[in-house]
Amino acid sequence: MAVLHNSRRRVATPGHAGTRRAPLCAMLAVAAFACAQRTFVQPGAGRGAVARTVRGGGSDSSQSAYTYEPFPWAADITVRDEDLLAVVQAVPDVDSVWPDNFGSMQREDFRTRVKQRAGNLEDRAIDSIFNSFNKATYIVVDRSSCAETIRSWRNSDPQGEVSMNSVNLSIFGGRVQVIGAWLFLNVFSSFAAYFIILRPILDSNFGIDLLPGQPKWWDR
């Protein structure tokens, strides 16, 4: 009888262990959701893509408080070729905007220098041209690549006719980089957070699986 009594004391009631784990798992799930939610950010939250406000220097009063934000810039296709051309004409060569004693060129450095050379320029056009150098980050560090991009607009002749096809192709590369970064931050990383962190917690403890057809890697 003593043996039977002791063995009964060792028997756990059904669901007891799961009940004890449930609060902890729920807390982990909430924390994981919070981490996943933090990935839903606008491009521009990082150091290299902080939104910048520029006052004055525009071609009209609507530019008195222009703000550069990477993703809205990438989605904006309304910048006119005439405005882009005005910026390009203010940049005949790399020396005109990037002194050779500087190791890098930041966005606002470029903006200041082209406006000193040409006066009223459209800020969105300035950012478009700058983003063709740096693939939409806040700084350019490869001077030779920047010089080559500028030469490609005029078929290597600083006084030659500007090819807007070449200019727009360079800008397109910047747009692709921004959109790719946005997709990574807002889509891929959030899916990865669910697949790696949330899915095993929810399935093991609550029987919830939003990807029932996919292998359960944590059961291997």
Short précis:
Keywords: Membrane, Transmembrane, Transmembrane helix. 56% of the residues lie in helices and 5% in strands. It has eight helices and four strands; from the N terminus they run ααββααβααβαα.
How does the helix and strand content classify structurally?
A: mainly alpha
Largest sheet: 2 strands, antiparallel
Would you count the extended β strands for me?
Answer: 4
User: Strands across the major sheet, in which order?
Assistant: 1-2
Q: Globular, elongated, flat, extended or rod-shaped: what is the shape?
A: elongated
- Count of alpha/pi helices: 8
Mean pLDDT: 77
Keywords: Membrane, Transmembrane, Transmembrane helix
Transmembrane segments: 178-197
Characteristics:
single chain; 220 residues; mainly alpha; elongated
How would you characterize the overall build of this protein?
This protein is mainly alpha-helical and 220 residues long. The chain has a domain at 48-180. Helix content is 56%, strand content 5%. The chain has helices spanning 2-10, 16-38, 70-75, 81-89, 107-118, 123-134, 143-152, 164-206, and strands at 52-54, 66-68, 105-106, 139-140. The strands form 2 sheets. A two-stranded antiparallel ribbon has the order 1-2. Helix 2 packs antiparallel against helix 8, helix 4 packs across helix 6 and helix 5 packs across helix 6 (123-134). It is elongated. It starts with a helix and ends in a 14-residue tail after the last helix. 23% of the residues are buried. Mean pLDDT is 77; it is low at 1-27, 32-50 and 55-62.
